[in-house]
Amino acid sequence: MTMKDNMEKILRREFGAVEVIDNSHLHAGHSGNLDGSGGTHFKIIIAQDAVPGKNRMEKHRAIIAALGDIAKEVHSIEIKMD
Prior knowledge:
About 35% of the residues lie in helices and about 20% in strands. With about 80 residues, the protein is α+β, with helices and mostly antiparallel strands. It has one domain (about 5-25, about 40-80): GMP Synthetase, Chain A, domain 3. The chain has a 3-stranded mixed beta sheet, covered by helices on one side. The N and C termini lie far apart (about 25 Å). The mean pLDDT is about 85.
């Protein structure tokens, strides 16, 4: 199972529908992804109401907390609330 698959599985269990995109190829040569091989830079798209009753920063913190150690293994996680 890939890092992307693991992230999707965890986030779907915690928050419902979510899309995880591996954007590592866009960051080849950057810090944390020198060879562009993947698994280092991700974009998470999640519904605005998936984390109810929290402000934007609290929502982001909840998503990162749900990922646990996985969040520590990647270089960059972008979160977009739709």
